[in-house]
Specification:
Elements (H helix, E strand, L loop, with lengths): L5 H13 L7 H17 L9 H11 L4 H24 L16 H33 L4 H17 L10 H13 L5 H18 L27 H9 L5 H11 L3 H5 L6 E2 L4 E4 L8 E4 L5 H20 L11 H4 L19 E3 L4 E3 L5 H14 L10 H12 L4 H8 L4 H4 L24
Antiparallel strand pairs: 1-2, 2-3, 4-5
Helix pairs in contact: 2-4, 3-4, 5-6, 6-8, 7-8, 10-15
C-alpha cells in the first residue's frame, strides 16, 4: 500500500478543515485518498485525471462497498482533484532549456515515450471494455453482482494476457487462461465455469467474436466434485436464534422460514408483505426472477411488532426532513416522492441515516450484509455449533426440511426460485430416503 507524501498529507488535511469536514471523518478521507493513489499506481491510471475516479468507484463496487462508503470516497477524491488543480495554477511555468545542436536525441527516452503512449492507448481500450460491459449488463437488467463477477474475471484475463489489446484476443488466450485456472490455481469446476461464462459474455457481446469462441474444446477441465450443502437441525437453528440479538434474529427467521437468500431478505420493502394472504413476494431475486413464498404464522406477532417499530422510525425520519430511502433504477426519477412513502421503506432498515456527500442528502439504507453475517458467526460460536454455518445455510436447511416433510421437489424448486430442477436436486443428498427400498410392480399395489 502506498503512503501519502508528507506535503500532500498536510495540504489535504488543511483542505479538509477549510471545507468543514468533521474532524472524526478526517481519517476516513485520508484512507480513501491512500486507497485511490494506490489503485492508480497499481492499475496505471493518472491520479490527477478525473476520469480515473469512475474506475476507482467501480472497483469499490466490486468490493461490495456500501452506497455511503462509495459516496464518501467519491467526495474525498474530488477534494483531492480540487487540491491538485490549485497546485497546478500556483506552480510557476518551467523554462525549457533548448536542446544543444549537433547532439542526437536520446533514443532510450524516445522508446520509453512510445511505450508509455502505447500503454495509455491500451488502458483506454480496456477502460472502454469495462464501460461497454457495464452497459451490456444494465441493458439486460442483470444484477450489479453479475457485473462484479464478470468484470472480476475479465480483469484477471486482462492481466493473464499481459494487458494485450482487446481486439487481439483470441480463443488460444481463453484456452490458456482456463487451463491455467484448472492446472496451476486448481480451482473448482464451478469456478472455472464461472470464468468461462464471463469470457463468453465478453467475446459475444463486447468484442463481437462469438464465432471464435469454441467452448471448452482443448481446455483442461477442473475436476467436478460432488457438492452436499451444510444443513442444520431444527434444534440447532433454535439454539442459534436464542443467541441472536434483535433484529438479526428476525432476519434469520426470514432466511429459514421463507428460504430467502441474504440479499433478497435485506432488500425486502414493506409493500412486499401481504398479511391478508400471508405471503411474501420476492422481487428481483437471482436471475431477476420474482416469486411468492408463504409467511410463517409463528412469527406473525413478532413481525407486526417489528413493522410498528419501522413505522415509528420512518415517522421520525420524515419529521427530521430526511430525503427518503434509496430507490432503484429510474423509478426514483419517475416517482420522486415514492422514497418517502412508508410502503417503500426497507423491512430491515439501517440503524443510522446515510449522508450522500455530493448532495448532502440524508437517506435510509437497509442493514448491511456484513453486519448480519457477523452476528450469525457470533451466535454460531456461542451456540457451540461445529458445522460451517453461514447465512445461506438457513436456506439450505429450509429446502432440506421441506423435502424431509415429503414436499414435492417441484414445489421446493418454485419456492427457492431455481430455474433448473438439477439445482434443487442437491437437497436429495441431505435427507435420508424414506421410500420403500424393495422393487415392486405397480400392478401389485392393489386398488386404493
Amino acid at each position: 500500500m502506498l503512503t501519502i507524501p508528507a506535503q500532500l498529507k498536510n495540504d489535504y488535511a488543511r483542505l479538509l478543515a477549510q471545507r468543514s469536514i468533521p474532524s472524526h471523518s478526517h481519517n476516513q478521507y485520508m484512507k480513501w485518498l491512500r486507497f485511490y493513489l494506490d489503485f492508480c499506481h497499481k492499475y496505471h491510471h493518472d491520479s490527477t485525471n478525473q476520469g480515473s475516479l469512475a474506475h476507482f468507484i467501480k472497483k469499490l463496487q466490486e468490493k461490495s462497498q456500501s452506497p455511503r462508503q462509495k459516496s464518501q470516497a467519491s467526495h474525498a477524491i474530488r477534494l483531492y482533484f480540487e487540491l491538485k488543480s490549485v497546485d497546478t495554477l500556483n506552480k510557476p511555468r518551467s523554462i525549457e532549456k533548448p536542446i544543444p545542436r549537433g547532439k542526437p536525441a536520446n533514443q532510450h527516452n524516445k522508446a520509453k515515450q512510445k511505450s508509455s503512449v502505447a500503454l495509455r492507448k491500451e488502458e483506454k481500450l480496456w477502460a472502454k471494455i469495462y464501460n461497454d460491459l457495464d452497459t451490456a449488463i444494465k441493458v439486460r437488467h442483470y444484477s450489479p453482482k453479475t457485473y462484479k463477477t464478470y468484470a472480476g474475471w475479465v480483469r484477471q484475463f486482462q492481466y493473464f494476457t499481459h494487458e494485450k489489446a482487446p481486439e487481439s484476443l483470441t480463443m488460444d488466450d481463453v484456452k490458456s487462461f482456463l487451463t491455467h485456472l484448472a492446472v496451476t490455481r486448481k480451482v473448482s469446476s464451478s469456478t472455472q465455469n464461472q470464468a468461462f461464462n464471463s469470457l463468453l459474455f465478453l467475446f459475444r457481446h463486447i468484442l463481437d467474436k462469438e464465432k471464435d469462441f469454441k467452448g471448452f474444446e482443448g481446455v483442461v477441465r477442473a475436476k467436478r466434485k460432488k457438492y452436499i450443502p451444510v444443513v442444520l437441525t431444527r434444534e440447532e437453528i433454535d439454539t442459534i436464534l436464542n443467541y441472536l440479538p434483535y433484529p438479526y434474529d428476525l432476519v434469520v427467521k426470514f432466511l429459514y422460514g421463507c428460504g430467502l437468500r441474504l440479499f433478497e431478505c435485506l432488500q425486502l420493502r414493506i409493500n412486499h408483505l401481504n398479511f391478508d394472504a400471508m405471503i411474501l413476494t420476492v422481487h428481483d431475486g437471482k436471475g431477476q426472477k420474482d416469486r411468492t413464498v408463504p409467511l410463517p404464522e409463528s412469527i406473525l406477532n413478532e413481525l407486526k411488532s417489528h413493522i410498528h417499530r419501522v413505522h415509528n422510525l420512518h415517522k421520525k425520519d420524515v419529521e427530521s426532513g430526511y430525503h427518503g430511502t434509496f430507490m432503484f433504477g429510474a423509478f426514483e426519477k419517475k416517482s420522486p416522492n415514492a422514497s418517502k412513502e412508508f410502503i417503500w421503506q426497507w423491512v430491515f432498515p439501517a440503524k443510522s441515516l446515510t449522508v450522500v456527500p455530493e448532495t448532502d442528502e440524508r437517506k435510509r439504507y437497509h442493514l448491511h450484509p456484513s453486519h448480519v453475517q457477523k452476528a450469525i458467526r457470533k451466535a454460531v460460536y456461542k451456540a457451540k455449533i461445529t458445522k460451517r454455518a453461514t447465512a445461506h445455510t438457513f436456506r439450505h436447511s429450509y429446502a432440506s426440511h421441506l423435502l424431509q416433510a415429503n414436499y414435492d421437489i417441484r414445489t421446493i424448486q418454485e419456492l427457492l426460485g431455481h430455474g433448473d430442477l438439477k439445482t434443487t436436486m442437491i437437497y436429495t443428498h441431505t435427507v435420508k430416503s424414506q421410500t420403500i427400498k424393495e422393487a415392486q410392480s405397480p400392478l401389485d399395489f392393489g386398488p386404493e
